[in-house]
Design brief:
The chain is α/β, with parallel strands linked by helices. The protein has helices at 14-26, 45-55, 63-67, 75-93, 128-132, 211-221, 226-235; strands spanning 2-7, 31-34, 58-59, 98-103, 106-111, 149-152, 159-163, 166-170, 183-190, 201-207. It contains 7 helices and 10 strands.
C-alpha cells in the first residue's frame, strides 16, 4: 500500500510547516499533496511557496492563493503579495482546483473549500444537505461524478464523518489550526490508482511546533493584523469568535 500525506492551510507559518515535513519524512512518506492556502495570514508567504513547490507533488488553489493574483483592497493580501514576486505569483496562478484519483476502489476528490468554490465555507456542524453536497461536482472539477471520499482544507478544523456510505474529512491546518494548538495533517493509505476494493486508511496526525518562534517571526516582519494572528496561534480560537 502507498501512503500520501495531505497538508493544507500553511499560511506562511514556516516553523509549523518545517515540523510537519520533518514528521512526514520520519514516517518515510514521499508523496505529499497540498490542499491550498499556502500564503496569507502569517509572515513568510514567500518561503512557504518555495517549500511547497519543492516538496509537494501537487497543490490545489486556496482562497488566499487566488487572492494573490486579484486586485483586492485588503491590507493583509496586499502585504503578502508584495513578498512573493513575479515567479511565485505565476506559480500560484497555475494551481489546479482539485486532485482526483482512485484508491482502493474508491473515487477520491480533494480540494480546498468545496466542489464549487475556493471561498465556500463548509463546517462539520452545517446542515446535512450542505455537507452531503460536498460529494458532488461542478464545472471546476476534473471528472463529472460523485466522489466516494472527499478531503478538504479551508476551515482549519480537522474532522471525519460518514454520510450515506461516503466519507467526508478535513485535514485541518498546518500553520493556523483553529481546533488544537498543534499543526495538523492527514495520511491516506491504500492502493493508489486501485480500482478494486482494498484496505484504505485515513489517519489524522498532530505535530507540535515552536509557536513562540512563529509568533516572533510575525512580530519581526511587522505584518498587518499581528495581534489576532498571535492569539489564534496561542489559543486555536478564531479571531471572529466563530470557529472557522
Amino acid at each position: 500500500m502507498e501512503q500520501i500525506a495531505l497538508i493544507s492551510d500553511i499560511h506562511g507559518n514556516i516553523p509549523a510547516l518545517t515540523a510537519v515535513l520533518e514528521d512526514i519524512k520520519r514516517r518515510g512518506i514521499s508523496r505529499i499533496f497540498c490542499l491550498g492556502d499556502i500564503v496569507g495570514k502569517g509572515p513568510n508567504s514567500d518561503l512557504a511557496v518555495d517549500i511547497i513547490k519543492n516538496n509537494c507533488e501537487i497543490s490545489v488553489m486556496g482562497n488566499w492563493d487566488d487572492l494573490m493574483n486579484q486586485d483586492v483592497d485588503f491590507e493583509m493580501a496586499r502585504w503578502s503579495r508584495n513578498l512573493l514576486g513575479k515567479d511565485r505569483l505565476a506559480y500560484l496562478g497555475t494551481l489546479p482546483f482539485s486532485i482526483e484519483f482512485m484508491m482502493s476502489g474508491k473515487f477520491i476528490r480533494l480540494f480546498h473549500a468545496s466542489p464549487r468554490s475556493y471561498y465556500e465555507r463548509i463546517q462539520p456542524w452545517d446542515d446535512y444537505d450542505k455537507r452531503l453536497s460536498m460529494f458532488g461536482c461542478s464545472d471546476l472539477c476534473q471528472e463529472k461524478r460523485q466522489a466516494d471520499i472527499v478531503g478538504y482544507g479551508d476551515i482549519h478544523n480537522a474532522f471525519i464523518e460518514h454520510l450515506e456510505g461516503k466519507t467526508l474529512f478535513n485535514v485541518g491546518s498546518v500553520g493556523n489550526p483553529l481546533d488544537v494548538t498543534q499543526a495538523s495533517y492527514v495520511i491516506l493509505e491504500g492502493e493508489y490508482g486501485g480500482l478494486t476494493t482494498a484496505s484504505l486508511n485515513i489517519q489524522f496526525v498532530r505535530v507540535p511546533y515552536e509557536i513562540e518562534l512563529a509568533i516572533q517571526q510575525a512580530i519581526d516582519a511587522v505584518m498587518p493584523a499581528t495581534e489576532p494572528y498571535i492569539r489564534e496561534l496561542r489559543t486555536a480560537q478564531y479571531r471572529g469568535n466563530v470557529r472557522g
